[in-house]
Specification:
The complex is a heterodimer. Chain A is built from 15 helices and 19 strands. By secondary structure, chain A is of the alpha+beta class. By secondary structure, chain B is α+β, with helices and mostly antiparallel strands. In chain B, strands 1, 2, 6, 7 and 8 form a five-stranded antiparallel sheet that branches. A three-stranded antiparallel sheet of chain B has the order 3-5-4. The chains are: A alpha+beta, B alpha+beta. At the A-B interface, strand 4, helix 7, helix 9 and helix 12 of A face helix 2 and strand 6 of B.
């Protein structure tokens, strides 16, 4: 166990001011004793570094999937005062609005019997995945501007979905304040050929079954029942988002001296929220976030078509439950010491988890709270949860985003063989389709913390409550 | 090879050593393309690149970021990096081949180059730098 941090509750830990020099507020994270055994000192240091940034409100926070990243730790959350505070690409990451959506189908596992391999193969052919792949959608530069401003709505207006999909996305699938002028020509060049592509790494399209209903009332509100076949899309803003992050990180790094901001890590480069550099980053980031929503919408559309063709079901029978972002900075109102305050909440590998009655969640879910989707690692369970009032009080309405890695890529490659992993999962009835077996090894289940333990911690800490556990049936990966 | 992968939980951490700064830049490029594509050969694709920055670390990040851009929009994979450095002005000749999904799918996408801990350090016999590639 690490020294210099204090346990302040069953699942809550504090990083006191002084852990690193110039902290303005304490750090706080949520972790079980089991998960604490794998906590890296570097991740705690990054959490403490965030606490040194100007205008940080209450605490620098981390969720139970905390691990060592760059800038913010993965699982990091921090809110900043709108006048005194800063905005930082290091609190969002390169893959802006990497996120997840979950869709139900009217099928059961029995309907897939004997057809699963064909289904996975057809999905692999329908959705471009992996390094170097290009979209089948043709996009003009003018249309790209529409994507960047309108997000998922752009896709729906192009016929890639329905109006009903939009209300079931965080922020209705688009962030306000998107400024295409803040997106470089390079970012646009990267964005044009990639809309509707999955990418690589931990991104996936997975066919799942709702295996265990933990909260029947919430499950009913979300429209999901036991035994129902679902699919989950996990991807982000592709090269466009990566380029927006790269471009603005550079600008903000150069502007540090201008604003006399001293940071312990150049990856935390930032600028006042209401400065030309801060506004430009926000405007560009919002464009990338909107691109990501359009991207997931387009992938969902292709997947719906495959299901409809193969199983003779209607497109409209495949209902989007929700779409969440887990790498983003947003302007939100939160109660801070009894007063409502507008803050800029950064979530880097963390999910918004607004509780019942909170503003900005679909009316049909208002009594339950926002759906929270936690993807499992390959071959393990994913979870549907709902947001809570506790999250609103303790974490600016935030929870974990996934399992969180425990094993490095290099160790994974030494310890796991992709081919064996694929065969082992097939033996368990989980079909995996990817361009290369070696890439699979890096995403093996043992590379990650057990998702059930991470979800148990957020559930018991009250940051979000478990509704449904989903098991994988087949997955396509980059 | 004068680059080695170190332990990093979330991303790829590479240590690059070189007798000269030129070698550092060349091998940092090779390391990144190794992560993205695996093996690559010179099959006649050539590309020139010129960049300038305020310091060597920023130049290294700009250079690697530019390579990410070029490989993606031009569908090329590079394996040799001929570097000319004058202060903080870089000219590079890149050589490689067109992207071929059959041969270049062993790696993963690099999303960006992190500033975290990136410092070119002078050692007794040359230079060393550790670079985190976000994957």
């Amino acid at each position: 166990m690490l020294t210099g941090i204090n346990r302040i509750g069953d699942l809550e830990w504090e990083v006191p001011i002084g852990y690193v020099p110039n902290m303005r507020v304490p750090g706080r994270f949520f972790l079980s004793r089991t998960l604490a055994e794998t906590l890296e000192e570097g991740a705690v240091r990054q959490l403490a570094n965030v606490a040194t940034l100007p205008g940080i409100v209450k605490n620098s926070l981390a969720m139970p999937d905390i691990h060592w990243g760059y800038g913010f730790p993965i699982g990091g959350v921090a809110a900043f005062d709108m006048t005194e505070g800063v905005i930082s690409p290091g609190g969002v990451g390169f893959d802006i609005n990497c996120g997840v959506r979950l869709i139900t189908t009217p099928l059961t596992e029995a309907d897939l019997a004997g057809k699963k391999r064909e289904l996975i193969e057809r999905l692999f052919n329908a959705v471009p995945t992996g390094v170097g792949t290009k979209s089948t959608l043709r996009l003009s530069n003018k249309e790209l501007a529409g994507v960047m401003v309108d997000g998922a709505r752009w896709a729906v207006e192009r016929g890639l979905g329905t109006e009903a999909d939009l209300v079931r996305c965080e922020g209705e699938g688009a962030m306000p304040g998107a400024d295409p002028e803040a997106v470089s020509t390079k970012a646009r060049q990267r964005g044009v050929p990639q809309i509707g592509t999955l990418g690589a790494g931990n991104h996936f399209l997975e066919v799942q079954v709702a295996k265990e209903i933990v909260d029947p009332e919430a499950a009913k509100a979300f429209g999901i029942a036991e035994g129902q076949v679902c699919f989950m899309v996990h991807c982000g803003s592709r090269g466009l988002g990566h380029q927006v992050a790269t471009d603005h990180l550079r600008t903000l790094e150069s502007a540090l001296a201008k604003y006399r901001i001293h940071i312990p890590d150049r990856q935390l480069a930032c600028a006042p929220i209401d400065s030309p550099e801060g506004r430009a980053y926000y405007g560009g980031m919002a464009c990338a976030a909107n691109y990501a929503w359009a991207n997931r919408q387009a992938i969902m559309h292709e997947t719906r078509n495959v299901f409809a063709q193969m199983f003779g079901i209607d497109y409209d029978e495949m209902r989007l439950i929700y779409d969440v972002a887990h790498n983003v900075a947003k302007f939100e109102r939160h109660d801070v010491d009894g007063a409502s305050m507008e803050v800029c909440v950064h979530r880097k590998g963390a999910t918004r988890a607004f509780g019942p009655g909170a503003e900005g969640i679909p009316r049909e879910y208002a009594a339950v709270g926002q759906p929270v989707i936690i993807p499992g690692s390959m071959g393990t369970s994913s979870y549907l949860l709902h947001g809570t009032a506790t999250a609103m009080q303790k974490t600016f309405g935030s929870t974990c985003h996934g399992a969180g890695r425990v094993l490095s890529r290099s160790k994974a490659k030494k310890e796991v063989r992709g081919k064996e992993l694929r065969e082992h999962l097939a033996g368990e009835g989980i079909l995996v389709r990817a361009h290369s077996d070696s890439a699979l090894a890096e995403e093996a289940p043992e590379v990650y913390k057990p998702s059930r333990e991470v979800v148990r911690v957020v559930h018991e800490a009250g940051l979000s409550n478990t509704v449904v556990r989903l098991e994988p049936l087949g997955v396509i990966k980059g | 090879m004068s680059f080695e992968e170190l332990e990093h939980t979330a991303d790829v951490l590479m240590r690059v050593r070189g007798a000269t700064i030129h070698e550092i830049f060349a091998d940092a490029g090779r390391a990144m393309f190794h992560v993205m594509y695996g093996p690559c050969e010179d099959r006649g694709v050539e590309r020139h690149l010129t960049l300038e920055a305020n310091n060597l670390e920023s130049l290294l990040i700009d250079y690697l970021s530019e390579l990410l851009f070029i490989t993606e929009v031009e569908n090329t994979v590079f394996c040799t990096f001929d570097i000319d450095l004058r202060g903080t002005r870089l000219s590079a000749v890149l050589k490689g081949e067109p992207f071929d999904p059959a041969r270049h799918s062993a790696g993963t996408i690099v999303k960006g180059i992190s500033y975290f801990g990136l410092e070119i350090v002078k050692e007794e016999e040359g230079y060393v730098v550790e670079i985190i590639f976000d994957i």
